[in-house]
Amino acid sequence: MLDVRAINVSYGNIHAVRDVSLRVESGEIVTIIGANGAGKSTILKTLVGLLRSATGDILFEGKSIAALPTATIVSHGIALVPEGRRIFPRLSTLDNLLLGAYGHAKNDIRKDLTAVLEMFPRLADRKSQLAGTLSGGEQQMLAIGRALMSRPRLLLLDEPSMGLAPLLVNQIFETILDINEQGTTVLLVEQNARIALAVADRGYVIETGKIVLTDDAEVLAGNEQVRYAYLGEDSSTA
What one-character DSSP code corresponds to residue 153? Predict the structure, then answer.
């Protein structure tokens, strides 16, 4: 479904992503784990056209999207849930959701809105509430719901656990599994490596802009280097 080929992305003189290649097959949950500042979010922003790679290519369902504008990429079936949620705080919950369906037919919007509100009953209870007054967990639900309103075949999630209590983190990741089981492929960027590897099929480990490890998620979770660096285990627990 997604084939990223040797992309390089810089912020001025800072080379943030270095020759990164990765793939995501239809139906998978794939995760990218790594420390803060390793380049994870930069990869996702590049996939949706918010940043541009100086080299390489990005293929989605066999066609290059590397030079396409973000709106076109979204229309092709890729949606990003950004780090920090980036909801519109002065708009209602309902209006935030409807923005995700911009340009869709009214009948499709009604159907998709019903599905999203069934998935997130708390949003249904807060349709008229200003999004900025929602709790952190509710705002994350809203950000995911808004992305789902665009009918993505590939959902990109950037740090969905950030700032959430453990119980809410578990709820969000249960929802991610449900979304995947309903047919949406997921590429997940996450600092909480333990839960990311628990839900993913495969994973990539990135350090200072480079992919240094890739394997099945279960194998990575048992890798000594990953356990020590990202799962909070030390030699006494090995």
Answer: S
Q: How many CA atoms lie within 13 A of 60 on its CB side?
A: 22
Question: What does DSSP say about strands 29-33 and 185-189: parallel, antiparallel, or unpaired?
Answer: parallel
DSSP states of 45-111: HHHTTSS--SEEEEEETTEE-TTS-HHHHHHHTEEEE-TT----TTSBHHHHHHHTTTT--HHHHHH
| Contact yes or no for 201/28 (Cβ under 8 A) | yes
Q: Which two tokens stand for residue 115?
A: 């599905």
CATH (residue range 2-228) = 3.40.50.300
Strand partners, 11: 14
pTM of the prediction?
A: 0.90
Q: Which residue has the tokens 């993913």?
A: 200
100-127 tens-digit pLDDT: 887 777 778 889 999 999 999 999 999 9
Beta strand 154-158 pairing with 78-81: parallel
DSSP state letter for 1: -
pLDDT in tens, 78-92: 999 998 888 999 999
